[in-house]
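Data availability (excerpt). All sequences and predicted token strings are deposited with the supplementary files. A representative entry, Germin-like protein, is shown inline so that the format can be inspected without opening the archive.
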Amino acid sequence: MKGVHFLLLLAVVALAASIASAYDPSPLQDFCVAVDDPNKALFVNGKFCKDPKLAKAEDFFTSGLNIAGDTYNKVGSNVTTVNVDKIPGLNTLGISLVRIDYAPYGQNPPHTHPRGTEILVVAEGTLYVGFVTSNQKDGKNRLFTKVLNKGDVFVFPIGLIHFQFNQGNTPAVAFAALSSQNAGVITIANAVFGSDPPINPDVLTRAFQVDKSVINYLQKQFWYDNN
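Structure token line:
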């Protein structure tokens, strides 16, 4: 009987290992179109890897996060990103970092990170932050908000729309880590009204349930990217 139990346990472990090894890696870019010719390939779901023997300390280093970003723009904020493009050694490690500077009453507009959860800490100032859930059973999207002061920490779950707003009349600074070497960012207004080429106005008119002239006006605006 013990032999039967052992064989059953072995079969379960083998099945679990098979499932685990069959799991696809998380995408590190918006899409990855397959090509048969490796000479025409640019990425391997992220970046190619350097020979470990050729790695050096500089591959794991960058500087400059002590420098404030320029917040003189329409949204009043600036995001300085430290991802795999800045630190090659981040490749495959599943993490990145940003510094966010906010002018008085500036904001980091509603946006999403399709490939990463974000954890944010306030270094200076006061921020009103929040995120919106996906559709709940009642069909509604629940809003979670909090006012953060220096030293406070808040988490924005992966893929959910979120924002930060500087409520004070002095500049604010925050740092955030993201659970991807390239979390991606989709700023909602920019993507919807500033895509290239533009989304058909008839689609947006019905989606937002407003007059078509409103959509035409919004699509003609310059949508600033603070990243």
